Amino acid sequence: MAKFRTLDDIGDVRGKRVLVRADLNVPMQDGKVSDDTRLRAAQPTIAELADKGAIVLVLSHFGRPKGEDPMLSLSPISSALAKVLGRTVGFVTECKGPAAEQAVGLMAAGEIAVLENTRFEAGEEKNDPALVAAIAKLGDLYVNDAFSAAHRAHASTEGLAHVLPAYAGRSMQAELEHLEAALGEPERPVAAVVGGAKVSSKLDVLNNLVSKVDHLIIGGGMANTFLAAKGVDVGKSLCEHDLKETALGILAKADAARCTVHLPYDVVVAKEFKANAANRTVNVHEVGADEMILDVGPAAVEALSDALKTCRTLVWNGPLGAFELEPFDAATVALARTAAALTEAGSLVSVAGGGDTVAALNHAGVADSFSFVSTAGGAFLEWMEGKALPGVEALRA
Ligand SMILES: Nc1ncnc2c1ncn2[C@@H]1O[C@H](COP(=O)(O)OP(=O)(O)O)[C@@H](O)[C@H]1O
Ligand SMILES: O=C(OP(=O)(O)O)[C@H](O)COP(=O)(O)O
């Protein structure tokens, strides 16, 4: 970490406006934050800066809006952040421009405000220098505390680091230190569990990961795409049919790298995507045309647990099923508990990451038993691949 400027190097911040890029992209259910891990991760940096008298301006994206979308405002999340911090947190309805400048101009030393979703701005994901300059007008210093968004070269995650004095926040610093300690030189065999719903971005990662791990366990929506690629009729399951060729390429690469790929052979299917929907457990070849695969089946989970028992290191991103909806949490909970027990017995180093993955481990009651739980999903996988993360690179001293 000596290569990065951290809050230890930031000097006197009293009265200075500090733009803190946090990751407030938290899981929501029924309009409420369902897992506040990322808010708790943001606390040390925000509290430290506010206690030192900075004017703290929190920047973040939320979801993947196409332009302004009131459903994806950060306003409700700023209230949740205030509860976690136990402090007053203001909300500024823009992340740049005259109204934001005026609101920030009224803030006093030690005050905290969240600015509106950076992805409401067209220039955010393009890392547009004009947007970078407009946001930079609001601050004197920039702190990036969003390791989980560090794989994005966006205006708020990368661009700002080039125009303002830039520092790594406490959460960013801790993530990099812990990941290096746990996975810098992983003991083999290494297993990776990759599941969840962000199929396209994670397929890219798998391409490189297969040469780094001995077992690749594929679940969630990811598995459906691979099953479809192998000719299985997955009915109405979440599946990216246009990526089937990519999936076949990954399987071939895994074979050449002697990486064992585990795909489910029994699955839990339902006709509705809702809790307690009528469901049945079937062989993957028996999914009905009007059914969705919502979880890995119990026989496959048992085989996965057995495979895990032969491994020394586990990296996990993405739930095996739609874990928010009981009973489709069963496979994720069962495998998480096996991994936790192996870690507690000292035979496995287990590192998990991802907003929903962390929520799933909390749901299974085992997050504290893992060796390290990262707030990051995609960024964590890219770090694992050995890729340079733009948000981290931009902080190099
Ligand atoms: N078989 C499935 N069908 C539909 N959605 C699924 C399935 N399996 C997992 N999911 C969904 O994937 C989401 C998490 O995916 P993702 O965002 O990729 O994970 P993470 O945030 O941990 O990286 C959860 O909301 C879960 O419901
Ligand atoms: O939730 C996030 O990533 P993750 O799902 O990989 O954990 C980050 O906030 C990044 O979000 P993005 O994948 O929409 O850029």
UniProtKB/TrEMBL annotation:
Pathway: Carbohydrate degradation; glycolysis; pyruvate from D-glyceraldehyde 3-phosphate: step 2/5. (2R)-3-phosphoglycerate binds at residues 38, 119, 152. GO terms for molecular function: ADP binding; ATP binding; phosphoglycerate kinase activity. ATP binds at residues 202, 324, 354-357. GO terms for cellular component: cytosol. It catalyses: (2R)-3-phosphoglycerate + ATP = (2R)-3-phospho-glyceroyl phosphate + ADP. It is an enzyme of class 2 (transferase). InterPro entries: Phosphoglycerate_kinase, Phosphoglycerate_kinase_CS, Phosphoglycerate_kinase_N, Phosphoglycerate_kinase_sf. It is found in: Cytoplasm. Belongs to the phosphoglycerate kinase family. PANTHER family: PHOSPHOGLYCERATE KINASE, PHOSPHOGLYCERATE KINASE 1, CHLOROPLASTIC-RELATED. This is Phosphoglycerate kinase. It comes from Sphingosinicella microcystinivorans. The gene is pgk.
